[in-house]
Amino acid sequence: MGKFVLKRLLALIPTILIIVFVVYFIMDLTPSDPGHLILGQMASDEAVAAKNAELGYNDPFIVRYVRYIWALCHGDLGTSWMTGKSVFESVMARFPVTITLAAGSVVLGVVFGILLGVLAAVKQYTFWDIAGTTLAMILASFPAFWIGMMLIIVFSLKLGWLPSYGTGSISHYILPWITTAGGFVASQLRMTRTSLLESIRMDYVRTARAKGQKESIVIFRHALRNALMPVITIVGMNFGTMLGGTVTIETVFTLNGVGTLLLTSIRSKDVPVVVGCIVILAVCYTLVMLVVDILYGFIDPQIKARYLKR
Amino acid sequence: MSTGTVEKTRQTTMKKSQRAEIWRRFKKNRLAVFGLVLFVFIVLVVIFADFIVDYEVAVTQVASERLQSPSLKHFFGTDNFGRDLFARVVHGSRNSLLIGFGSVVIGVTIGGLLGAVCGYTGGTFDAIMMRILDSIMCIPTVMMALAIVAALGTSLENVLLAMTISSVPRYCRIIRSSVLTVTGQTYIEAAHSCGTSNIRIIMKHVLPNAIGPIIVEATMAVGTAIISAAGISFVGMGIQPPAPEWGAMLSEAKNYMMLYPYMVVFPGLAIGITALSMNLMGDGLRDALDPKLKD
Q1: Rounded (10°) angle between helices A87-122 and A271-299
Q2: What domains, with CATH codes, occur in chain A?
Q3: Nearest residue in B to A287, CA atom
Q4: Which tens digit of pLDDT belongs to each residue from A61-89?
């Protein structure tokens, strides 16, 4: 088990190297001018040129890339060209908002998605099934940021129940959570339904029924537990994309998360912050997927047995 | 396999009946047919946009008619510059569908060839490619597209390019796995032993047999691409006004939604209905192509 985790963590290294290379390369497609960004538009050309030389910005691409990686090995993500603050600190300052948003909506999505999915599968071809799958289809088709705006119009504007922007309290997060959870509910519901329909036809479920087990236990303990694997993979993937894919939601609800930080840095060509953000998000994503892989072991007895043998 | 011609006619008739069979199953799925009807309707709007309402109406600013609620004169109302929203939604369909279909078609072609080569050759090349693609896939698609647009500048072509590049790894992965299931088959081995070249095997035998899941995936991907493109425009990095684009319209509407909520409603409905039609068709196609998958 420990060996498995260690191996996965080591695999992070080439991943980060490739990610940094790709992001660095994209940002390098058009020349940016850190001297101007740091010193302001009023600075003289000589001062800007001197600053660029000091930062080593005139060096070829590959030299800068290697230098960045070297600094990264020492835990240094660089400093922002715009604000002069450490990249790590600026990202971490925004992280709680994004994590709260992501975690809350994943929880909502998992609970409602799986429950509705079970309902749809158990009552296949009835009203519940059709209503559930239709709901999933609609949620998957309409852009989340639009759903968010409609929710604001209804719940903040017309009914006045909830605030429409900012981060003061829990109530500020309710609409963003519902908005982002929509897409998860859709994918979770479909996955649970398909997977459960498959496992419900298995022999062990028939056995459980035959021995007179209560239907709820048959479904939740026997069928669902075995159907949960693909569902959990989707949870992990959703949580990962969530971390980086909330720009639009953060824009709608004016939340100051990592997404908006990344957006403003991309706009102002603040390369260290852009690369830093994406590296941190990508590392989080891989860690989440690792946790998912470990979770498999706890849920599926067959895989657990394999771990123990090693 | 004694006479080539007999074999060929048998193949064509089989292909024909297979297609008819798929179409028959597709037709039986009412939701899928509904999706198809929606889609045909949207395509008609795209083709006849100029006949429905003049492009000039979509971009002309009429100061005296700012922020009008929906009425018979302006079906969807007007925006903060006095532009007719109905005309903007109708003409915006062209940009959205162009990006949606363009990015998926180009992305699937590039990703498909790459995935087919990887899946077919296997070995070190495949392992290295997959390692690289997996790493790139850790970067959220929207982030990557945003970075590319920021680097190249905001324009229709660059949004299209950004969406394409950021989606290639995903298509490559999907197509590789569906190619892998095919390469194990005996007819590939047979073609191999006949001395057929690798390229020919990939083009003639592997891809045609692996195409089913790819079509389904591509259909659904068009919907996702339209939503992502709208998101990019929504945060102000996509197609720039005054050119009509659904995401950009929502971005402008956001500033006025407190007082003029109708501005938000219609562009969003347009995005949603388009994506819905693609998703419904994709679902129907999946069931039609592979009846085993149903329940």
Answers
A1: 40
A2: 14-87 (no CATH), 95-309 (1.10.3720.10)
A3: B138
A4: 788 888 888 887 887 777 777 777 888 88
Task: Identify the H or E element spanning B191.
Answer: helix B186-193
Is B266's Cβ below 8 Å from some Cβ in A? no
| Fold that domain B40-289 belongs to in CATH | MetI-like fold (1.10.3720)
The total number of residues written for chain A in this structure: 310
Q: How far apart are CA B21 and CA A295, in angstroms?
A: 42
pLDDT band per the 50, 70, 90 thresholds, residue B47: confident
For the record, the structure tokens of A160 come out as: 């006045």
Residue type for position A293: D
Chain centroid to CA A273: 18
**Residues belonging to chain B:** 295
Phi, psi angles (nearest 5°) of residue B78:
-125, 160
Among A30, A146, A247, beta carbon nearest to B151:
A30
pLDDT at site B277: 92
In chain A, what residues touch B148 (CB-CB under 8 Å)? Answer: 26, 29
CB contact A274 to B (< 8 Å): yes
CA angle B76, B77, B78 (to 5 degrees): 125
pLDDT digits (tens, 9 = 90+) for A204-225: 888 888 888 888 888 887 788 7
Exposure string of A244-277, with b = 16+ CB inside 10 Å and e = fewer, is bbbbbbbbbbebebbbbbbbebbebbbbbbbbbb
pTM score, whole prediction: 0.83
- Nearest Cα neighbor of A272 from A5, A28, A11, A12 is A28
CA atoms of A104 and A286, how far apart (whole Å): 20
Check whether the bond before B169 is cis (ω within 30° of 0): no
Q: Residue A304 CA to chain centroid, in angstroms? A: 27
What region does A59 belong to: left with phi over 0, alpha with psi -120 to 50, or beta? beta
